[in-house]
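Sanity check. The docking grid for iron/sulfur cluster depends on where the pocket ends up, so I'm generating a full predicted complex first rather than guessing from homology. Inputs follow.
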Amino acid sequence: MFYKSKTLNSKATMSTLKRFRYHVIKDAGLPLLMRLSEMKKRKKFTPSTQTPFNPPLKARRRLKEIMTRHYALSRFAEKAKPVAWVTSGAPVELLRSFDFYTIYPENHGALCGALKKGPEMCQIAEDHGYHQDLCSYARIDLGYHFSKITPVGKLPKPDLLFCSGNICQTVVYWYKVLAHELSIPLILFDTPYISEDICEDDIAYMVQQIGEMIPTLEQISGKIFDFQRFQDCIRLSKETSTLWGKILDTLKTQPAPMTIFDAFGHLAPIVSLRGLPVAKRYYEILLAELQERVKQGIGALKEEKKRLMWDNIAIWYKMRDFSNLFAEHGMNFVTATYTNAWCESTRHMNPSHPFESLAKTYSLIILNNNLSHRLKLMKRLIRDFNVNGLVIHSAKSCKPYSIGQYDIKRMLLEELDIPSVIIEADITDARAFSEQQALTRIEAFFETLEARVE
Ligand code: SF4
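Predicted complex below; grid placement will be based on this.
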Protein backbone atom coordinates (compact mmCIF):
# COMPACT_ATOMS: atom_id res chain seq x y z
CA MET A 1 0.00 0.00 0.00
CA PHE A 2 1.54 3.30 -1.03
CA TYR A 3 0.45 6.53 0.62
CA LYS A 4 1.29 9.79 -1.12
CA SER A 5 1.41 12.98 0.88
CA LYS A 6 0.06 16.22 -0.62
CA THR A 7 3.35 17.51 -2.00
CA LEU A 8 5.47 14.49 -2.71
CA ASN A 9 9.21 14.71 -3.25
CA SER A 10 9.65 11.18 -4.47
CA LYS A 11 13.28 11.07 -5.59
CA ALA A 12 16.03 11.52 -3.02
CA THR A 13 18.47 14.13 -4.31
CA MET A 14 22.00 12.87 -3.73
CA SER A 15 25.10 15.01 -3.68
CA THR A 16 28.46 13.64 -4.86
CA LEU A 17 30.28 15.81 -2.34
CA LYS A 18 28.11 14.56 0.55
CA ARG A 19 28.59 10.97 -0.63
CA PHE A 20 32.36 11.49 -0.63
CA ARG A 21 32.21 13.09 2.85
CA TYR A 22 30.04 10.18 4.12
CA HIS A 23 32.63 7.61 2.98
CA VAL A 24 35.57 9.54 4.42
CA ILE A 25 33.81 9.85 7.78
CA LYS A 26 32.71 6.19 7.71
CA ASP A 27 36.04 4.66 6.72
CA ALA A 28 38.55 7.01 8.34
CA GLY A 29 37.09 9.77 10.56
CA LEU A 30 34.81 7.75 12.81
CA PRO A 31 37.13 4.75 13.37
CA LEU A 32 39.88 7.19 14.45
CA LEU A 33 37.58 9.21 16.75
CA MET A 34 36.21 6.05 18.34
CA ARG A 35 39.71 4.68 18.99
CA LEU A 36 40.76 7.95 20.64
CA SER A 37 37.68 8.15 22.83
CA GLU A 38 38.08 4.47 23.77
CA MET A 39 41.69 5.07 24.85
CA LYS A 40 40.57 7.94 27.06
CA LYS A 41 37.69 6.06 28.66
CA ARG A 42 39.14 2.59 29.14
CA LYS A 43 38.69 1.73 32.78
CA LYS A 44 39.57 -1.52 34.46
CA PHE A 45 36.74 -3.48 36.02
CA THR A 46 37.38 -3.72 39.75
CA PRO A 47 35.41 -6.56 41.26
CA SER A 48 33.43 -5.51 44.31
CA THR A 49 32.39 -7.85 47.07
CA GLN A 50 29.18 -5.81 47.46
CA THR A 51 27.72 -6.38 44.01
CA PRO A 52 25.41 -9.35 43.34
CA PHE A 53 26.80 -9.54 39.78
CA ASN A 54 29.75 -11.36 38.28
CA PRO A 55 31.97 -9.27 35.93
CA PRO A 56 29.98 -7.82 33.01
CA LEU A 57 30.23 -9.09 29.45
CA LYS A 58 33.18 -7.72 27.49
CA ALA A 59 31.02 -7.49 24.33
CA ARG A 60 29.17 -4.55 25.92
CA ARG A 61 31.98 -2.23 24.86
CA ARG A 62 31.72 -3.35 21.23
CA LEU A 63 27.94 -2.85 21.35
CA LYS A 64 28.37 0.71 22.52
CA GLU A 65 30.86 1.39 19.72
CA ILE A 66 28.54 -0.02 17.06
CA MET A 67 25.48 1.94 18.14
CA THR A 68 27.42 5.19 18.72
CA ARG A 69 28.92 4.83 15.27
CA HIS A 70 25.50 4.09 13.74
CA TYR A 71 23.96 7.29 15.11
CA ALA A 72 27.09 9.39 14.51
CA LEU A 73 27.33 8.26 10.89
CA SER A 74 23.62 8.83 10.32
CA ARG A 75 24.26 12.59 10.56
CA PHE A 76 26.33 12.36 7.38
CA ALA A 77 23.97 10.01 5.54
CA GLU A 78 21.52 12.75 4.53
CA LYS A 79 21.90 13.42 0.78
CA ALA A 80 24.80 10.94 0.65
CA LYS A 81 22.56 7.87 0.71
CA PRO A 82 18.81 7.31 0.53
CA VAL A 83 17.55 7.49 4.11
CA ALA A 84 14.49 5.67 5.46
CA TRP A 85 12.80 5.75 8.85
CA VAL A 86 11.49 2.29 9.51
CA THR A 87 9.23 0.57 12.06
CA SER A 88 10.75 -2.34 13.97
CA GLY A 89 8.50 -4.94 12.32
CA ALA A 90 8.90 -3.83 8.69
CA PRO A 91 10.63 -6.14 6.16
CA VAL A 92 13.80 -4.08 6.05
CA GLU A 93 15.66 -6.66 3.91
CA LEU A 94 13.97 -5.14 0.85
CA LEU A 95 15.34 -1.68 1.72
CA ARG A 96 18.81 -3.11 2.43
CA SER A 97 18.96 -4.38 -1.15
CA PHE A 98 18.58 -0.73 -2.28
CA ASP A 99 21.25 0.43 0.17
CA PHE A 100 19.06 2.67 2.33
CA TYR A 101 20.49 4.10 5.57
CA THR A 102 17.84 3.13 8.08
CA ILE A 103 16.80 4.81 11.31
CA TYR A 104 14.42 3.14 13.73
CA PRO A 105 12.46 5.77 15.69
CA GLU A 106 11.44 3.06 18.18
CA ASN A 107 15.10 2.31 18.94
CA HIS A 108 15.75 6.05 19.20
CA GLY A 109 12.77 6.26 21.60
CA ALA A 110 14.18 3.44 23.74
CA LEU A 111 17.54 5.20 23.85
CA CYS A 112 15.92 8.48 24.91
CA GLY A 113 13.96 6.51 27.55
CA ALA A 114 17.09 4.82 28.92
CA LEU A 115 18.77 8.24 29.13
CA LYS A 116 15.71 9.51 31.04
CA LYS A 117 14.80 12.04 28.35
CA GLY A 118 11.34 10.49 27.71
CA PRO A 119 9.12 12.89 29.72
CA GLU A 120 10.82 16.01 28.31
CA MET A 121 10.49 14.86 24.68
CA CYS A 122 6.95 13.53 25.14
CA GLN A 123 5.95 16.88 26.64
CA ILE A 124 7.00 18.65 23.43
CA ALA A 125 4.60 16.46 21.40
CA GLU A 126 1.90 17.02 24.01
CA ASP A 127 2.40 20.79 23.70
CA HIS A 128 1.61 20.31 20.00
CA GLY A 129 -1.69 18.63 20.81
CA TYR A 130 -0.76 14.93 21.02
CA HIS A 131 -2.45 13.14 23.90
CA GLN A 132 -0.54 11.60 26.81
CA ASP A 133 -2.25 8.26 26.05
CA LEU A 134 -0.47 7.99 22.69
CA CYS A 135 2.49 5.57 22.62
CA SER A 136 5.52 7.34 24.07
CA TYR A 137 7.80 6.15 21.23
CA ALA A 138 5.50 8.10 18.89
CA ARG A 139 5.47 11.13 21.22
CA ILE A 140 9.27 11.11 21.51
CA ASP A 141 9.61 10.94 17.73
CA LEU A 142 7.09 13.73 17.19
CA GLY A 143 8.78 15.68 20.00
CA TYR A 144 12.03 15.33 18.05
CA HIS A 145 10.30 16.41 14.84
CA PHE A 146 8.99 19.61 16.45
CA SER A 147 12.09 20.51 18.48
CA LYS A 148 15.06 18.68 16.89
CA ILE A 149 16.14 17.86 20.47
CA THR A 150 17.76 14.44 20.86
CA PRO A 151 20.57 13.03 23.01
CA VAL A 152 22.13 11.56 19.82
CA GLY A 153 22.74 15.03 18.35
CA LYS A 154 20.69 14.81 15.17
CA LEU A 155 18.74 12.31 13.09
CA PRO A 156 19.00 12.42 9.29
CA LYS A 157 15.92 13.71 7.48
CA PRO A 158 14.31 10.72 5.76
CA ASP A 159 13.58 10.40 2.05
CA LEU A 160 11.12 7.60 2.78
CA LEU A 161 9.00 6.26 5.62
CA PHE A 162 8.56 2.49 5.73
CA CYS A 163 5.97 1.10 8.09
CA SER A 164 4.26 -2.18 8.87
CA GLY A 165 1.07 -2.48 10.89
CA ASN A 166 2.10 -5.94 12.18
CA ILE A 167 3.06 -4.53 15.59
CA CYS A 168 0.20 -2.05 16.10
CA GLN A 169 -2.04 0.45 14.34
CA THR A 170 -0.38 3.36 16.17
CA VAL A 171 2.62 3.20 13.85
CA VAL A 172 0.36 3.57 10.81
CA TYR A 173 -1.14 6.87 12.00
CA TRP A 174 2.16 8.07 13.49
CA TYR A 175 3.95 7.55 10.14
CA LYS A 176 1.07 9.17 8.23
CA VAL A 177 1.56 12.26 10.38
CA LEU A 178 5.29 12.22 9.60
CA ALA A 179 4.64 11.76 5.86
CA HIS A 180 2.34 14.77 5.94
CA GLU A 181 4.68 16.92 8.04
CA LEU A 182 7.81 16.04 6.03
CA SER A 183 6.11 15.81 2.61
CA ILE A 184 7.77 12.51 1.80
CA PRO A 185 6.43 9.13 0.64
CA LEU A 186 5.24 6.48 3.04
CA ILE A 187 5.21 2.81 2.11
CA LEU A 188 2.89 0.78 4.28
CA PHE A 189 3.22 -3.01 4.50
CA ASP A 190 -0.21 -4.19 5.55
CA THR A 191 -0.17 -7.56 7.33
CA PRO A 192 -3.48 -9.36 7.87
CA TYR A 193 -4.10 -10.27 11.51
CA ILE A 194 -3.28 -13.94 11.98
CA SER A 195 -5.41 -16.18 14.16
CA GLU A 196 -3.08 -19.11 14.80
CA ASP A 197 -2.46 -20.13 11.17
CA ILE A 198 -1.66 -18.21 8.01
CA CYS A 199 -3.59 -18.95 4.81
CA GLU A 200 -2.51 -18.81 1.14
CA ASP A 201 -4.66 -15.71 0.42
CA ASP A 202 -2.92 -13.80 3.23
CA ILE A 203 0.49 -14.70 1.79
CA ALA A 204 -0.57 -13.73 -1.75
CA TYR A 205 -1.88 -10.37 -0.49
CA MET A 206 1.46 -9.54 1.21
CA VAL A 207 3.60 -10.84 -1.67
CA GLN A 208 1.74 -8.58 -4.07
CA GLN A 209 2.40 -5.57 -1.84
CA ILE A 210 6.14 -6.29 -1.68
CA GLY A 211 6.25 -6.52 -5.48
CA GLU A 212 4.42 -3.20 -5.80
CA MET A 213 6.95 -1.46 -3.55
CA ILE A 214 9.85 -2.12 -5.89
CA PRO A 215 9.26 0.63 -8.54
CA THR A 216 8.88 3.23 -5.77
CA LEU A 217 12.09 2.09 -4.07
CA GLU A 218 13.91 2.18 -7.41
CA GLN A 219 12.68 5.70 -7.99
CA ILE A 220 13.68 7.00 -4.54
CA SER A 221 17.04 5.24 -4.33
CA GLY A 222 17.97 5.68 -7.99
CA LYS A 223 18.96 1.98 -8.07
CA ILE A 224 17.62 -0.92 -10.10
CA PHE A 225 16.22 -3.81 -8.06
CA ASP A 226 18.82 -6.59 -7.77
CA PHE A 227 17.14 -9.91 -7.01
CA GLN A 228 20.39 -11.63 -6.06
CA ARG A 229 21.23 -8.85 -3.59
CA PHE A 230 17.74 -9.11 -2.11
CA GLN A 231 18.28 -12.84 -1.55
CA ASP A 232 21.68 -12.16 0.04
CA CYS A 233 20.11 -9.64 2.45
CA ILE A 234 17.52 -12.22 3.51
CA ARG A 235 20.23 -14.84 3.99
CA LEU A 236 22.22 -12.46 6.18
CA SER A 237 19.15 -11.48 8.16
CA LYS A 238 18.29 -15.13 8.77
CA GLU A 239 21.84 -15.94 9.89
CA THR A 240 21.78 -12.96 12.28
CA SER A 241 18.39 -13.81 13.78
CA THR A 242 19.48 -17.44 14.17
CA LEU A 243 22.54 -16.25 16.10
CA TRP A 244 20.26 -14.10 18.27
CA GLY A 245 18.17 -17.21 19.01
CA LYS A 246 21.30 -19.13 20.02
CA ILE A 247 22.35 -16.24 22.26
CA LEU A 248 19.02 -16.36 24.08
CA ASP A 249 19.27 -20.15 24.32
CA THR A 250 22.46 -19.85 26.40
CA LEU A 251 20.20 -18.50 29.16
CA LYS A 252 18.66 -21.96 29.51
CA THR A 253 21.82 -22.88 31.41
CA GLN A 254 21.79 -22.63 35.20
CA PRO A 255 23.22 -20.20 36.15
CA ALA A 256 22.36 -18.15 33.08
CA PRO A 257 25.43 -16.33 31.67
CA MET A 258 23.59 -13.00 31.30
CA THR A 259 20.30 -11.44 32.38
CA ILE A 260 17.39 -10.39 30.20
CA PHE A 261 18.21 -6.80 31.20
CA ASP A 262 21.57 -7.33 29.43
CA ALA A 263 19.70 -8.85 26.47
CA PHE A 264 17.44 -5.77 26.21
CA GLY A 265 20.61 -3.77 25.49
CA HIS A 266 22.13 -6.35 23.14
CA LEU A 267 18.87 -6.29 21.16
CA ALA A 268 19.76 -2.98 19.48
CA PRO A 269 21.66 -4.43 16.46
CA ILE A 270 18.95 -6.99 15.60
CA VAL A 271 16.36 -4.21 15.66
CA SER A 272 18.32 -1.43 13.95
CA LEU A 273 21.01 -3.17 11.90
CA ARG A 274 19.22 -6.33 10.83
CA GLY A 275 20.40 -7.48 7.39
CA LEU A 276 23.82 -5.79 7.70
CA PRO A 277 27.12 -7.69 8.22
CA VAL A 278 27.97 -5.62 11.32
CA ALA A 279 25.04 -7.10 13.27
CA LYS A 280 26.00 -10.68 12.36
CA ARG A 281 29.64 -10.12 13.32
CA TYR A 282 28.59 -8.60 16.63
CA TYR A 283 26.39 -11.55 17.56
CA GLU A 284 29.16 -14.02 16.71
CA ILE A 285 31.36 -12.22 19.26
CA LEU A 286 28.62 -12.12 21.89
CA LEU A 287 27.67 -15.78 21.41
CA ALA A 288 31.30 -16.90 21.72
CA GLU A 289 31.66 -14.99 24.99
CA LEU A 290 28.43 -16.42 26.41
CA GLN A 291 29.38 -19.96 25.41
CA GLU A 292 32.72 -19.51 27.18
CA ARG A 293 30.92 -18.33 30.32
CA VAL A 294 28.62 -21.34 30.16
CA LYS A 295 31.64 -23.64 29.83
CA GLN A 296 33.24 -22.06 32.89
CA GLY A 297 29.99 -22.00 34.87
CA ILE A 298 30.00 -18.19 35.20
CA GLY A 299 26.52 -16.79 35.72
CA ALA A 300 25.40 -13.18 35.39
CA LEU A 301 24.61 -13.27 39.12
CA LYS A 302 26.92 -14.54 41.81
CA GLU A 303 24.02 -16.55 43.14
CA GLU A 304 21.00 -17.43 41.00
CA LYS A 305 18.24 -18.57 43.33
CA LYS A 306 15.16 -18.05 41.16
CA ARG A 307 14.64 -17.72 37.42
CA LEU A 308 12.13 -15.23 36.06
CA MET A 309 10.42 -14.29 32.81
CA TRP A 310 9.68 -10.69 31.73
CA ASP A 311 6.60 -9.89 29.65
CA ASN A 312 6.39 -6.81 27.40
CA ILE A 313 8.88 -4.11 26.37
CA ALA A 314 11.41 -2.92 28.97
CA ILE A 315 10.80 -0.01 31.31
CA TRP A 316 13.85 1.70 29.84
CA TYR A 317 14.41 4.33 32.55
CA LYS A 318 14.21 1.69 35.32
CA MET A 319 16.47 -0.98 33.84
CA ARG A 320 19.43 -0.40 36.13
CA ASP A 321 17.33 -0.05 39.31
CA PHE A 322 15.29 -3.17 38.57
CA SER A 323 18.34 -5.11 37.53
CA ASN A 324 19.99 -4.35 40.92
CA LEU A 325 16.83 -4.89 42.95
CA PHE A 326 16.07 -8.35 41.54
CA ALA A 327 19.73 -9.43 41.54
CA GLU A 328 20.08 -8.51 45.24
CA HIS A 329 17.38 -11.13 45.90
CA GLY A 330 19.15 -13.73 43.72
CA MET A 331 16.44 -13.43 41.06
CA ASN A 332 17.59 -13.56 37.46
CA PHE A 333 15.46 -12.80 34.41
CA VAL A 334 16.29 -15.57 31.95
CA THR A 335 13.70 -15.07 29.22
CA ALA A 336 11.27 -12.47 27.87
CA THR A 337 8.52 -12.45 25.28
CA TYR A 338 10.05 -9.23 23.89
CA THR A 339 13.60 -10.47 23.29
CA ASN A 340 12.20 -13.71 21.85
CA ALA A 341 10.20 -11.73 19.26
CA TRP A 342 13.38 -11.13 17.23
CA CYS A 343 13.95 -14.80 16.49
CA GLU A 344 10.39 -16.06 16.83
CA SER A 345 9.62 -16.41 13.12
CA THR A 346 13.17 -16.56 11.69
CA ARG A 347 12.67 -20.13 10.52
CA HIS A 348 10.34 -18.84 7.80
CA MET A 349 13.10 -16.77 6.15
CA ASN A 350 14.12 -18.45 2.93
CA PRO A 351 16.30 -16.72 0.29
CA SER A 352 14.98 -19.15 -2.34
CA HIS A 353 11.44 -17.78 -1.84
CA PRO A 354 12.18 -14.22 -0.73
CA PHE A 355 8.73 -12.65 -1.16
CA GLU A 356 6.76 -15.46 0.49
CA SER A 357 9.29 -15.82 3.25
CA LEU A 358 9.15 -12.14 4.20
CA ALA A 359 5.35 -12.31 4.21
CA LYS A 360 5.43 -15.22 6.68
CA THR A 361 8.31 -13.93 8.80
CA TYR A 362 6.76 -10.54 9.40
CA SER A 363 3.15 -11.57 9.88
CA LEU A 364 3.70 -14.56 12.18
CA ILE A 365 4.87 -12.55 15.17
CA ILE A 366 3.52 -12.28 18.70
CA LEU A 367 1.83 -8.88 18.28
CA ASN A 368 0.04 -9.94 15.09
CA ASN A 369 -1.46 -13.06 16.60
CA ASN A 370 -4.14 -13.88 19.16
CA LEU A 371 -4.00 -14.41 22.91
CA SER A 372 -3.97 -18.19 22.79
CA HIS A 373 -0.86 -18.05 20.56
CA ARG A 374 0.77 -15.80 23.17
CA LEU A 375 -0.21 -18.08 26.03
CA LYS A 376 1.20 -21.11 24.20
CA LEU A 377 4.46 -19.25 23.55
CA MET A 378 4.77 -18.17 27.19
CA LYS A 379 4.17 -21.71 28.41
CA ARG A 380 6.91 -22.99 26.11
CA LEU A 381 9.36 -20.33 27.36
CA ILE A 382 8.49 -21.12 30.99
CA ARG A 383 9.26 -24.81 30.45
CA ASP A 384 12.33 -24.37 28.23
CA PHE A 385 13.99 -21.83 30.52
CA ASN A 386 12.89 -23.43 33.78
CA VAL A 387 11.11 -20.30 34.99
CA ASN A 388 9.86 -19.90 38.58
CA GLY A 389 7.97 -16.61 38.30
CA LEU A 390 6.78 -13.94 35.89
CA VAL A 391 6.99 -10.15 35.94
CA ILE A 392 4.41 -8.52 33.68
CA HIS A 393 4.94 -4.95 32.59
CA SER A 394 1.57 -3.39 31.83
CA ALA A 395 2.77 -0.59 29.56
CA LYS A 396 0.58 2.49 29.30
CA SER A 397 2.02 3.18 25.84
CA CYS A 398 1.56 -0.20 24.31
CA LYS A 399 -2.05 -1.38 24.24
CA PRO A 400 -1.49 -4.34 21.86
CA TYR A 401 1.20 -5.78 24.11
CA SER A 402 -0.60 -5.09 27.38
CA ILE A 403 -4.07 -6.31 26.47
CA GLY A 404 -5.07 -9.63 28.05
CA GLN A 405 -2.25 -9.63 30.63
CA TYR A 406 -4.61 -10.14 33.60
CA ASP A 407 -6.07 -13.22 31.89
CA ILE A 408 -2.60 -14.53 31.11
CA LYS A 409 -1.56 -14.01 34.73
CA ARG A 410 -4.55 -16.03 35.96
CA MET A 411 -4.14 -18.82 33.39
CA LEU A 412 -0.43 -19.30 34.06
CA LEU A 413 -1.09 -19.59 37.77
CA GLU A 414 -3.93 -22.08 37.26
CA GLU A 415 -2.27 -24.19 34.59
CA LEU A 416 1.45 -24.07 35.47
CA ASP A 417 1.39 -22.77 39.05
CA ILE A 418 3.56 -19.81 38.01
CA PRO A 419 3.18 -16.78 40.33
CA SER A 420 3.40 -13.35 38.76
CA VAL A 421 3.30 -9.64 39.49
CA ILE A 422 1.97 -6.84 37.29
CA ILE A 423 3.92 -3.57 37.24
CA GLU A 424 2.02 -0.63 35.80
CA ALA A 425 4.43 1.71 34.05
CA ASP A 426 5.41 2.99 30.65
CA ILE A 427 8.23 2.15 28.27
CA THR A 428 9.84 5.62 28.31
CA ASP A 429 7.53 8.08 30.04
CA ALA A 430 8.45 7.97 33.73
CA ARG A 431 5.46 10.16 34.60
CA ALA A 432 3.27 7.03 34.25
CA PHE A 433 5.23 5.11 36.89
CA SER A 434 4.64 5.04 40.63
CA GLU A 435 7.78 3.86 42.40
CA GLN A 436 5.98 3.17 45.67
CA GLN A 437 3.19 1.14 44.10
CA ALA A 438 5.68 -0.92 42.07
CA LEU A 439 7.93 -1.60 45.06
CA THR A 440 5.03 -2.72 47.26
CA ARG A 441 3.93 -5.22 44.59
CA ILE A 442 7.46 -6.45 43.94
CA GLU A 443 8.14 -7.01 47.66
CA ALA A 444 4.98 -9.11 47.95
CA PHE A 445 6.11 -11.05 44.85
CA PHE A 446 9.54 -11.69 46.41
CA GLU A 447 7.86 -13.05 49.56
CA THR A 448 5.69 -15.42 47.50
CA LEU A 449 8.65 -16.71 45.53
CA GLU A 450 10.97 -17.02 48.49
CA ALA A 451 8.37 -19.03 50.41
CA ARG A 452 8.16 -21.59 47.60
CA VAL A 453 10.31 -24.69 47.54
CA GLU A 454 10.79 -25.74 43.90
S1 SF4 B 1 5.40 0.39 21.82
FE1 SF4 B 1 3.50 -0.65 21.24
S2 SF4 B 1 2.13 1.01 20.56
FE2 SF4 B 1 4.23 1.83 20.55
S3 SF4 B 1 5.00 1.47 18.48
FE3 SF4 B 1 5.63 -0.31 19.70
S4 SF4 B 1 3.99 -1.81 19.40
FE4 SF4 B 1 3.18 0.18 18.75
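Relevant for the grid: The longest helix spans residues 16-41.
Also worth noting: The mean pLDDT is 93.
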